[in-house]
């Protein structure tokens, strides 16, 4: 009787694990297949990463701050995408009085995350 109960429990747990893995696979695949813009938006709105919403109003952003300028018409404001990336990497280089964190210089974000944010912000 004990062996039967143990076998049933083992089978149920194995099936639950398998089902969980199968259910998570599409979400992992869609996250892996996300574009740089989608990944950039995820980093930008993440309160523990870019946290752009703390200071900037952005498209689709909830509870934005108003310390920094709204992130709109970015292609017109930064025709050269490299200058936008440099601004995100270290805003204190062109303006030592900027309160924007130097995300790259202080290694608050990885180079890849800065590239992704740049791609996203450039679409705004």
Q: What is the arithmetic mean of pLDDT?
A: 82
Supply the CATH superfamily name of the largest domain: Cytochrome c-like domain
Order of helices and strands: HHHHH
CATH topology of the largest domain: Cytochrome Bc1 Complex, Chain D, domain 2
Main sheet properties: none
Helix content: 40-55%
Distance between the termini: 65 Å
Q: What is Rg? A: 22 Å
Shape: globular
Give unreliable regions as ranges. Answer: 18-30
CATH class membership of the largest domain: Mainly Alpha
Question: How many H/I helical runs?
Answer: 5
Structural class: mainly alpha
Our estimate of the beta-strand percent is under 5%
CATH architecture descriptor of the largest domain: Orthogonal Bundle
How many β-strands, per DSSP? Answer: 0
How many discrete domains?
A: 2
Structure commentary:
The chain is mainly α. The protein has two domains: about 1-35; about 35-124, Cytochrome Bc1 Complex, Chain D, domain 2. It has five helices and no strands. The protein has helices spanning about 1-30, 35-45, 75, 80-90, 110-124.
